[in-house]
Amino acid sequence: MANFGQATFVGSDVVIRCDKNWTCCQREQAQAKTKNLNSNCPLTIKSKVSKTSKRAKKNCQSRETTRLLNEMEADPKKGAADNAASPCLAEQMERDWNKGDRSTSELDVQMDHPLEAKLGGPANTVLKALDTEVNNFFGGVAKNIGNKMRKAGKTEIASLSLVCPPPCKPPKAADKNTDYSCGKRTTYPKKTKPSQVTPEYA
Questions:
Q1: Which end of the chain has fewer CB atoms < 10 Å from its terminal CB, N or C?
Q2: pLDDT per residue over 110-153, tens digit each?
Q3: What does the alpha-carbon distance between residue 21 and residue 140 come to, in Å, rounded to a whole number?
Q4: How far apart (Å, rounded) are the C-alpha atoms in residues 128 and 85?
Q5: How many structural domains is the chain composed of?
Q6: Residue 190 resides in a domain
Q7: Distance CA 45, CA 121 (A)
């Protein structure tokens, strides 16, 4: 068993522990992200993301950011619903847009690759808006855990689990007792000492 930040791997399974300070909406997004990654397993861990892929990824993010803002300008409700990674984020984006926020930094979102390039995802694809903190967290997990696993002789991720029990800081009182955990592992390994995941993209 090995550990890096708030994620660890047991064999070929990656276990992620959500930040206790995440809001219910951030947890909902993390759950959706984990489920999507799981649906693509097994994931092949690249030893290195090429400069060409990095450039393509950057260009894709720029293009998709422009598309998001144009769609929000045309119809905030539909633009948010069509592009947000989860329903609660769509509500936040629409509300913030109507209050005058007109950039992804003001909306506190980033356009996220559903499957990170480090884990075999395409650099050029349709992206979804994801909370900035959650996006950076998963980018750090993909890079750091991927490198750790390859160093241990593993080149594939068989499954991912999110351990994210209540309580959370709810935007709605009804959400505070929701367990956002998912995947086959229901507890975070006890022998690990998680610290903050490096907030950088894969």
A1: N
A2: 999 999 999 999 999 999 999 999 999 999 999 999 999 999 99
A3: 18
A4: 6
A5: 1
A6: no
A7: 10
Q: What is each CA distance from 54 to 89, 121, 135, in whole angstroms?
A: 27, 12, 17
Examine residue 108 and state whether it is found in any structural domain, yes or no: yes
Q: Phi first, then psi: what are they for 17, rounded to 5°?
A: -110, 125
**3 state SS of 141:** helix
Q: Are 83 and 91 spatial neighbours (Cβ–Cβ below 8 Å)?
A: no
Which residue range is the domain that position 73 belongs to?
2-175
- Pairwise CA distance, residues 3 & 192, whole Å: 6
- pLDDT tens-digit readout, 23-73: 999 999 999 999 999 999 999 999 999 999 999 999 999 999 999 999 999
Helix (H) or strand (E) holding 2: strand 2-4
The residues pairing with 159 across neighbouring beta strands, listed in sequence order, are 13
Residue 161, strand partner residues: 15
Report the amino acid identity of residue 39.
Answer: S
Banded pLDDT at 191 (limits 50, 70, 90): low
Note whether 17 and 189 are within 8 A (CB).
no
How far, in Å, CA of 167 to CA of 176, rounded? 5
**What value, to the nearest 5°, has the Cα angle with vertex 90 and ends 37 and 81?**
85
Asked if residue 186 is part of any domain, the answer here is no
- Cα(157)–Cα(63) distance, integer angstroms: 30
